[in-house]
From TrEMBL:
Location of the Transcription regulator PadR N-terminal domain: 7-77
SUPFAM superfamilies from the UniProt entry: Winged helix' DNA-binding domain
Classification via PANTHER family: NEGATIVE TRANSCRIPTION REGULATOR PADR (PTHR43252:SF6), TRANSCRIPTIONAL REGULATOR YQJI (PTHR43252)
Domain Transcription regulator PadR C-terminal: 91-164
Stated name of the protein: PadR family transcriptional regulator
Length: 175
């Protein structure tokens, strides 16, 4: 997710200043994606430059409140209506690691086992986090997504192990 569009979504609910946006962004994502406040203000500057937000006057505490523009609302609606392509997601380091281990002729089983243990630990932590953050639908959706990803990773690791075992057995039969 682009921070730019996330901030626009939060601003669509009303004017906000940078620290409010940071806190609401982190609360909405269950604090799974922490933002640096400098990142928030840099993004707000770009949004202002692009005509997607307008800054207001400074309040008595020196905070500038930002308001979304019509162009910002249009950009947010475009983002919501555009599916996220698989190619837009970052590369999966685990997939690359296992592929390179196989290509290097390494014993991949310990790699798979170490990842399986780490993923199970993550799954347990996410389950605890879900219980602790059940009140917010936004947080729950984020945590549920992470749980489903961890479960899918466990299934994929099982599949990798099965494919590699079958490959080894096939190679041994052909010797």
């Amino acid at each position: 997710m682009a921070i730019k569009q996330g901030l626009l979504a939060l601003l669509s609910r009303g004017p906000r200043y940078g620290y409010q946006l940071r806190a609401e962004f982190e609360a909405s994502t269950g604090a799974t994606w922490p933002l640096n406040i400098g990142q928030v203000y840099t993004t707000l500057s770009r949004l202002e430059r692009d005509g997607l937000v307008t800054p207001g006057e400074q309040d008595e505490q020196g905070r500038v409140v930002y308001t979304i523009t019509e162009a910002g609302l249009t950009e947010m609606a475009r983002w919501f209506s555009t599916p996220v392509a698989q190619s837009d997601r970052p590369r999966d380091e685990l997939v690359i690691k296992l592929a390179m281990a196989v290509a290097a002729g390494a014993d991949v089983r310990p790699v798979i086992q170490a990842q399986r243990v780490a993923t199970m630990r993550t799954l347990q932590e996410l389950t605890r986090a879900k219980r602790a953050n059940a009140e917010s639908p936004a947080q729950r959706l984020v945590i549920d997504s992470m749980i489903f990803q961890a479960e899918a990773e466990q299934r994929w690791l099982d599949h990798c192990e099965a494919v590699l075992t079958a490959s080894i057995q096939t190679q041994e039969r052909h010797r």
